[in-house]
Automatic annotation (TrEMBL):
Keywords: Hydrolase, Magnesium, Metal-binding
Top enzyme class: hydrolase
Organism from which the protein derives: Curvibacter cyanobacteriorum
Residue ranges with Low complexity bias: 303-324
Record-stated family: Belongs to the inositol monophosphatase superfamily.
Name by which UniProt lists this protein: Inositol-1-monophosphatase
InterPro entries: IMPase, Inositol_monoP_metal-BS, Inositol_monophosphatase-like, Inositol_monophosphatase_CS, Inositol_monophosphatase_SuhB
CDD domains the record matches: IMPase
Tagged with keyword Metal-binding: yes
SUPFAM superfamilies registered for this protein in UniProt: Carbohydrate phosphatase (SSF56655)
């Protein structure tokens, strides 16, 4: 760890590496790892839980007055009313891990009064460490990283995550993927959203989109992207995305084009766009509510271009009061 890094980032790196060591040891004999199922296709292992405990112990030893929001234990640890909240995913890409597919990571972010200010994404299988402090840039293994410079969507490589839970709108996602696939150089589904965002920050991919994500999936990665010069928001380009279960990221030019392409699929899209999508998908009004349910957004949101240069810190992110 570097003495030039923010002290809280140094502690987060220590926690991420401790979790990574647990994950790497377990990966040597992944067949023996005990696996349980939270819901269909949503797995948790003893490794997730051990890694999360190691992270929480490290963070709270250094900062006992801080709050915790973790994927497996929610808000049961740490202070409940702190302005400092660590947002933790101990093993993003559990399904990959239990199959021995080496695309997974540890994700740790610190929100201060609702704004993400520190971020670590650690890939233990490659020993790749992505870090960011608000206002200080993003780094991969101590090397400054920037988003890609591609400007044409047709030359861009885009990553995503496929729906896999009961109730997910597969038809809508197929339509989104179809729109993206025919206009880009390629579409990839690695299987770990935090690492997807880190790769956008590093310029390995040019954009990313996914629905159904929780704050612990995207908090750290979103700061990496913005500190690397990219943009992050929901599908309509709005900045308050952290708890909206919609995430879109990319370099500025590609981001704007993806908003224009995918904004109509957002639950915050305008009424006209929603109606057009329903008609295109051949859904009746009852089935279409899967796509537009719980939308409290302003139906006048412009889906053709980003409404603002959305960043992880433009506005306070609304952290949930309880785990999802």
């Amino acid at each position: 760890m570097s003495s030039n890094l923010h002290p809280m980032l140094n502690v987060a790196i220590k926690a991420a590496r401790a979790a990574g060591a647990i994950i790497n040891r377990a990966a040597l004999d992944v067949e023996s790892v005990r696996v349980s199922q939270k819901q269909v296709n949503d797995f948790v292992t003893e490794v997730d839980q051990a890694a999360e405990n190691a992270i929480i112990d490290t963070l709270l030893t250094a900062y006992p007055g801080h709050g915790i929001l973790a994927e497996e234990s929610g808000q049961t640890h740490g202070a409940k009313d702190s302005e400092f909240v660590w947002i933790i995913d101990p093993l993003d890409g559990t399904t990959n891990f239990i199959h021995g597919f080496p695309v997974y990571c540890v994700s740790i972010a610190l929100a201060v009064r609702g704004k993400i200010e520190q971020a670590v994404v650690y890939d233990p299988s490659r020993n790749d460490l992505f870090t960011a402090t608000k206002g200080r840039g993003a780094y991969m293994n101590d090397r400054r990283i920037r988003v890609s410079k591609r400007t044409r969507l047709g030359e861009s490589l885009i990553s995503t995550g496929f729906p896999f839970r009961p109730g997910d709108n597969f038809k809508a996602y197929m339509a989104m993927m179809g729109d993206v696939m025919q206009r880009t150089a390629g579409l990839r589904r690695p299987g770990a959203a935090a690492l997807d965002l880190a790769y956008v920050a590093a310029g390995f991919t040019d954009g990313f989109f996914e629905t159904g994500l929780q704050p612990w999936d995207i908090a750290a990665g979103s700061l990496l992207v913005t500190e690397a010069g990219g943009l992050v928001g929901n599908f309509t380009g709005e900045a308050d995305f952290l708890d909206q279960q919609e995430c879109l990221a990319g370099n500025p030019r590609v981001y704007g084009q993806l908003v224009g392409l995918l904004g109509k699929y957002s639950k915050f899209a305008g009424a006209g766009d929603k109606a057009a999508v329903r008609q295109a998908l051949g859904q009746d009004s009852a089935a279409a509510t899967d796509l537009t349910a719980d939308s409290a957004a302003d139906d006048s949101a412009d889906a053709e271009a980003p409404a603002a240069a959305a960043t992880a810190s433009d506005k306070p992110a609304a952290l949930p009061d309880a785990p999802f």
